[in-house]
């Protein structure tokens, strides 16, 4: 679906490339997570996948990024938005400023695509229902909470029916309540089988939802695989990423002889609960 091949990129003001030899496959129907230390290149990669790089940012690149049969560098942004939707960190900055209600705000992208009125209304209602924001339809986008605004930003992308939805740390500027709203929206999107690429520091969120993780370190993809394998990889600290609370707790328990060497370290609450249950049962026997 999205394919990077030997993609190297430098911003106009960069002294050295910030992405190097990236080869990556975002596959249909899969939920991909992108992790890495701050400044490793995740947002740059997300922008390259959505075409903001090179179209909006300029810079120098070698190698290629393709979305389906389109070569990103050769495809104008207005054509790419129907294939790849990008939701960024700051919900406020994503409001168009051109529309007075949430319903109109969500329709805005479709209007620009010239979609016929009835079809557009249908799409807007459908996406509001799927993300459970129908009750916000007549409110001003500016009156909403950060979490609500971010879900509206997601809806504004989904309404254009892209093949892939990319989200760059969509909860990083939200309070816990706002984050929960966005996470619920993500779960609803995942349930539809949509292809997703999520840039995220919250490892537990990825452990719960992602099919596959890609680790970025110093502009390169240094590891890829299932969340259970990547999030317990001994190199996680060296990559500057850290671990889930569940992995940390089980690692300490293992040091104290309470978590068996044979049992894999957990990355989810269920995995941790199972392991600790087994350990307690073992003690009682
Ligand atoms: N517009 C820009 N011009 C020049 N350099 C940039 C630009 N944006 C980012 N960079 C640099 O590119 C590198 C990668 O940045 P990027 O924002 O992609 O990292 P990141 O992994 O998303 O970080 P974070 O987790 O903090 O968001 C960093 O060294 C950053 O300073």
UniProtKB/TrEMBL annotation:
Domain ABC transporter spans what residues? 2-243
Q: Which GO terms describe its cellular component?
A: ATP-binding cassette (ABC) transporter complex
Q: Name one GO molecular function term.
A: ATPase-coupled transmembrane transporter activity
What is the designated name of this protein? Answer: ABC transporter ATP-binding protein
Keywords, sorted A to Z? ATP-binding, Nucleotide-binding, Transport
Indicate the family of this protein: Belongs to the ABC transporter superfamily.
Q: Which domain of life is it from?
A: Bacteria
Q: Which Pfam families match?
A: ABC_tran
- Name the CDD domains for this protein: ABC_cobalt_CbiO_domain1 (cd03225)
Record carries keyword Oxidoreductase: no
